[in-house]
Each structure stands twice: as structure tokens, then as C-alpha cells.
Amino acid sequence: MDSDGTRDVRGTHANPVPRPAGPPPAMPPRPSVPPRPDGSAFLAWLRTPRPEAAPGVWRFGHRPRPEEEPEVVPGRQLFTGALIAFLVGWLIWSLLWNGYLGGWWLLPLYAMIPDSWAQPHSIGAVVVVYAYYVVVALIIMVGVGRLGRWSEIWRRYGPPAWRRGAAAADARPPAPDQDPADWPALRAAGAAGAADAADRLAADARAGLMRDVDHARITRAWQGVRSGRHSVATFTGAVLKDGAAACPHPSGERDLPARLARHDLLTGQVRLGTTADDPRNPYAYRGTGLALGPELLGTSLLAVGPAGSGKTGTVVRPLAESLCLHALAGRAAVVVVGAAGAGLGPADAYDVVVRIAHPESVYDLDLYGGTTDPDEAAAILAEALVGDLADPHPGSDTRRSTTVLAQLLGPFRAVHGRFPSVPELRRLLDGAPGPMSELRAALQDAGQDSLLRELDARERQMGHPGDVGGVLADRVALLDRPAFAGFFDTSGQSRPFSLKALDHPVRVRIDLPERGHADASRILARLVLAQFTASVAVREDRSLFACLILDDATGVVTPEAVRGIQRLRSANAGAVLTLRTLDDVPRPLRGPLLGSTGCRIALSGLTPWDGQDFAEVWGKEWTETRDVTDRQIIAETPAGKAVHVLRRAITGKAPTARAVTVRQVERERWSASELAHAVPPGHAVLSLTDVQGEHAPPLLVDLRD
């Protein structure tokens, strides 16, 4: 109790900390302006060397390695040999100095010096003689140094090894005419206002107002100026006005909400992992980063691995993220298709998100691909509906189904000015008398005699046992469900997305309702693939790379789909397909599918029969095998035993007589058994081919690094 009768509770649970005397400390004043960002990180990224490298090598800061692995002497053997060489040199010098080997080594000295220098206590004689001693000692030291590999010890453990890391850290900024931050290509153009635009961009880069997407986007816009698509005045005016924010993407975004992978937009690569330090990998690839870019995706990619092997998280998600960044830079258009909730990136990372069977979806999917040609619409829709039922042999296709659909789509569009909705198409394929009679009457009123003949042919075929109209009606019925009631609208009341928009750098994600609608999801996946292959082939601007990513291609691979994938490379487009197993592809299509994709990934957990298909497509190679036979040497004399002890001390091994047999044999690059059992978890074996035809052999890659 205090003197005034109150209780002092300082230090108790109610008030554990004593209150300081005097007024509370004042808060620091809030800065009037936010701190300016620092551009050093961006400049360091921009100036990092990116040497030319083999396909798939992460070029950011890459240090090329020799093609063949150099022979590295173990450290123990290296130091032991160096010490013995030094002792041998010391012994030789001692024998010479003490005269045990005679005076012959002094004859050159006596032949070169005058007789007056040979007098005792002559300064000239002392200098010349000791200089000669030094020369002889240096000759001995150089000889034993070469034998003892002293230079290798100096390089591996001396100051050169210490300064190796410091040299990279102390790299000086490049010259102004070679500094990418100064935009030398823009200055060299010599156009009016180009130098001022380069100054503005360089100032924004140093002030931290520019990021990698801005640099890639403005570079792409300048390429458009050089190709004649845009004028120099428009480009320089936009740069002088907005600086690093010039030439924006239509969405106005300058970056993604979040990045999970490492990207280098200067080379267009995304890093997927690190090539393992494994003898089966070429030495030039071991320990290097493994990255993909549009030049590799342009040959299409197929990834096969069981559930949980990392197809979505380590392959699909980084590629989708990279292509979205390319789209923001105006370089690419991407369509990502997968199941709802598959983890393909947040909705904010895309311009268009089509959530099929989701009542809150803003966008719809155009069932006919935005075309107005009934024949083209019939071909695309037939591939989606019954493409998996076509005989998967060369020459087989869906022409009969295309003909049936064209016989209905053409007359319907001529009468209504649009294609039929899903319920209307189902009733027409079923041959319901009401819709067919109404369509016939409307054609007669319009005088469309040629389309009447098409309708007559359709009605005659309905009674034949081999008519495919019933099969088409059954497949359309999968889309005529209450969950899809608000989708595939053709009346113009919704916002349908069409793959005709691939002429623009658009980012699209399509969520398929696989839960409860697996068959309908496969139809829609085939529909998107068919529309993609048809749309990219007729684009006017093929400088924009277009890519379709199918997170699960089960039931999507058809004969026409394989032919479409083969044509993507010439259209500057590519497709990324993932499969849980090659058993999801008909046996006759597995070889053509693996042959039509230039990049193939076999993830861990592959079955031996899937591994056999990969082993066949990767083929065989000639390798050099060495059969070594070691026979221990038994010493019988004391001198021999002493030599053996010395040899064991130098090499660390027992003295043996070795017989080596070298043969050239042909073996599989990766056998089916190795792919099934020798690929560690989190790893994958992949081969790459770029659009120029350069390829990388199958590589074991750690996708977790």
C-alpha cells in the first residue's frame, strides 16, 4: 500500500511492466513522399550475361562447360605426387651441390666466363656463379613442377581460385554503346525522337520504374516499328509520354499478381529445374538450369506421369505463368484448359476466364469457334463430338459426321442467321418431325433449293442402319444438361469467347466441369483443341506465338488432333499436353503422338510399358564400354614390398595389374526399366527439340530445384 492508500500493482499480472515517468515518446513523422524504388536490381538483371547455349539450358548467368568431362586427379593423389616431385628435385640438387654426380654440370659456366673472373674473391665471379646456380635450380624446379602438377594445384587451390568468384562480383558496367539499359538499338536507328525516347527509358530503368515485363513489351513494340506495323512517331510519342508504362497491354496490367517460377523475359525462358549431375547426362548439361521457351514450345510438348508426379505443379503451372507474362509483353496468346480448381493460376492472371457450368461465369464458350462457314463449323464440331470414335489408323477421319452436321447447320443458318443452340441441334439430329418440318417450310419460303436438297439427303439417311446421326445426338445430349443450360448460347445474349481472338495477346483460362461431367469435359477439350488448330492456321499476324495448354488430355488425342499438332510448328504455335499414362491414347496413335511432339517428358512413376514407348522414340546410341580386369600384384622381395608401400601411399590403392578392353556397343539411351525404376521422385527424363531442328538428348532433371 502507498501512503495515499492505493495499491501499487506495478510488476504484478495486472501491470507487469512499470510505466515510465514523463510523457510518452513521440512517433516519428510520416514521410511526405513514398521512398523511391531502387533500379539496381533491374539493371543487374538486365546486364547479366546470357551466352548462347544448347537447347533447354537456362541462359541467365550461364557458364558454358566443355563437351567432354576433363580428367580430374584426386586431391590426395595430386598433393602426394607434388610432394614426392619436390623431394626428388631436392635430392637431385643435393647430389649436384655436393659433387656426388661430378662437376660436368659446371662446364657450361667455365666455357662462358673469362679467365679473369675465375680468380678467387672476384665479385664478377661470385655474381655469375651464383646466377648460374639459380638458373640450374630453376630448371630443376620447372621439371619437377611439371611432373608434380604444381600448376594444377595453383589453379585449384591457389589465388586464381580465390579470385574466381570475386571477378564476377566486381564486374564493371558495360560501355554505354553496349549497355542494354541505354537502349543502344533504339539509339542506332537514328530516327527522329529515338534518342530522346532512349534517354527516357534509360532514366526510368535507373530510377527503378521499369520491370522485366516493361522491357520486353517495349522491345516488342520497337520490333513492330522495325517491321513496319507501327510508325516511329507513334512509338516515340508514347515512350516520351508514359516512359516505362508505354505501349501497354489491353488489360493495362504490367505484371502478374504473383510468380511461382523463375522467369527471364529477355530470353523468354522459364526455369523448370536443374539437370542432374548424373553419368547418363552429357557433361555439358550437368548441373545447369533446365528452361523452356517459345522456341521449344513451338514444337509442342507431351508430359506423361501418374497422378501426384508433378505434371501440373512443376510443368503446366510454370509454363502457363511464363506464357501469361509473354502475353503481357505482347509476344504471345495463351489458352489454358483444365479442371476447375486444378491450380492453373489465379483468375487475376488471365484476361478471360470461362467457367463452364458455373453460374457466375462472366464468359461463355462459342460452340462453333466464331466461324460463319457451316462446313468449317461442322468439321470442328464433328471432331469434338465423335473424334475419339474414329478409327485411329492413317486415312481414317470424321468425314461422315461432318457431312451430317453440315446438312443441318447450313439450312439452319440460312433461315435463322445463326447456328442452332445445343437443344435445337439435338432435336435436329434426333430427326424430330416438328423442327425438321419448320426448317423445310422456311427454306421453301426463302427459295433455298440447294439447301432443301441437303435437308432431303439428311432425311433419307435417317432411316439407314449405319446413320451416324444417332451417335451425334447421343453425344450432343451430354451437353444438353441442366448444368449447361446457360452456356453455348447462340442468340447473342451472352459473352461467348472464340479462339478467333488469338490474333491478339490474350490470356484465357477455361475451367472444365470434370466432376460429374467427365464425358462432357472430354468433348469440350476436343472442341477447344480443334478450334485452336483451325484458328492459328489462318491468323494474319503469325509473329505472335500462340499456345494451348491442356492439363489433362485424356480422351483428346484423335487422328485429326495428331495431324493438327503436326501443323502447329509452321503457324508459330504449339500445344502442351499432359497424360497420366499413354494407355489413355489408342495404341495406333501413341507413336504418331510422340513423333509429332518435339519435347517429351517422362516423369517419375512411369509404368514399364509406357517407358517402352519413350525408349523406342528416343532410340539408341553408340557408347564406349570399358571392361576392366584388376589382378593384385604380390611382392616377394623387400625392395618390391617397399615400392608397393610407396605406391599405395601415393595412389591410395593396392598395386594391381590392370587389363582394359574397350568396345563400341549400341544401347538404348534410356531403357523402359530405367524409366520405370531409376527416376527418383520429383525428377523427370525429358528430350527437347526447338523450331530450328536442334535437339537435346534425354536428360534427367530435378524438377524440385
From TrEMBL:
TM ranges: 83-107, 127-147
Record's compositionally biased regions (Basic and acidic residues): 1-11
Coiled-coil region(s): none
Ranges of biased composition (kind: Pro residues): 17-37
Keywords for the protein's UniProt record, in alphabetical order: ATP-binding, Membrane, Nucleotide-binding, Transmembrane, Transmembrane helix
Transmembrane helix among keywords: yes
Entry-linked InterPro entries: P-loop_NTPase
Region Disordered: start-end pairs: 1-41
Gene Ontology molecular function terms on file: ATP binding
Keyword Transmembrane helix: yes
Protein name, UniProt field: ATP-binding protein
Organism: Streptomyces chromofuscus
